Amino acid sequence: MRSHLLRYADWASPVPPVAREVHSALPDSDEGRPPLLFVPGLGHGPWAFAEHWLGHAARRGFPAHAMALRERGGLRAYAHDVVQVAAGLPRQAVLIGHGAGALVVARVLARYPARAAVLVAPVLDGWAGLRAALRTNPLGTVPAAFGGALRLSRRQLFSAELPAEQADAFRGRLAPAGARTQWQVLMAGAPPRPAGPAPVLVVGSPDDRVVPRKALDRAAGRYGVAPLLFPGMGHDLMLDAGWAEPIDAILEWLGKELAPGTS
User: Fold this and answer.
1) Alpha-carbon span 77 to 36, nearest angstrom
2) Residues of the chain under the 70 pLDDT cut
3) Which pLDDT tens digit goes with each residue over 107-124?
4) Domain extent listing, the chain
5) Would 227 disulfide with which of 14, 95, 202, 209, CB 3.0-4.6 Å?
6) CA distance linking residue 218 with residue 227, whole number of Å
7) Those residues with Cβ within 8 angstroms of residue 245's Cβ, 6 or more apart along the chain or in another chain
8) What is the rounded distance in angstroms from the CA atom of residue 226 to the CA atom of residue 221?
9) What stretches of 25-172 show up as alpha helix (H) in DSSP?
10) Secondary structure letter of residue 44 according to DSSP
11) Residue 57 in contact with residue 81, Cβ under 8 Å?
């Protein structure tokens, strides 16, 4: 079955193949639920979801997978990789993207018939994110505007509830994003409209110091929904102290949206 639309660039300038790293957690029994495919944001990897969310989703009966984004590539290559991984799963996937990974998912929705999509702390408006980061972490942000590496602070990523030692350990696992990718995220226009009727949920925190509340509202409004908010949490909802609350809410939403007879 062809699972995505062929674009001119796909054959005129094909994306180079790469080995794709995917981490998985599977439920004890297959109840026919759609697989979840988690897409990380800049600097993060599948480990960020494997820490808590993958196993938690599997215990709730959802096959859960988290993929890595290729080291050298841009948004088109990332979208290509997500489509390829999703197409290799046994059923239509639910796509869950975090940060810039949510931007990738939003672009994928124009060519892959996802079962549903969740945009977690989505960076859909790069300039709004840059302005917010400049206010909260100017020393770590200014270099990124000139081709250097973006360095996110503990205060941007996590709430004060997460022990400093654990927060610093997570920050130590972040990889620097390429200048080309950072610039593409910054300059990305509005993502194309989804090609299908997949329901979309936008999740975030009003206290996120990377994605401001107004940006969350704009992202949710694009899909005709209101954002689901978790006050007191940082940008990395999947790693913060209250990580269970967002994933439980996401799974509850999926249970209702994907119930038989739900339009």
Assistant:
1) 20
2) 1-13, 126-150, 261-263
3) 999 999 999 999 999 998
4) 8-257
5) 202
6) 9
7) 230
8) 7
9) 47-50, 53-59, 75-87, 100-108, 126-136, 138-141, 154-157, 164-171
10) -
11) no
Cα angle 24, 26, 28; round to 5: 160
What's this model's pTM, rounded to 2 decimal places?
A: 0.88
Place of tokens 């999926």: 254
Could you give the C-alpha distances from 68 to 167, 214, 253, in angstroms and in order?
A: 21, 29, 25
Classify the C-alpha dihedral 256-52-205-43 as positive or negative: negative
Length of the chain: 263
**180 phi and psi, to 5 degrees?**
-60, -45
Q: Tell whether domain 8-257 is in CATH 3.90.1200.10.
A: no
Q: How is residue 222 written in tokens? A: 């694009």
When computed from its CA atoms, the radius of gyration of the chain, rounded to whole angstroms, is 17
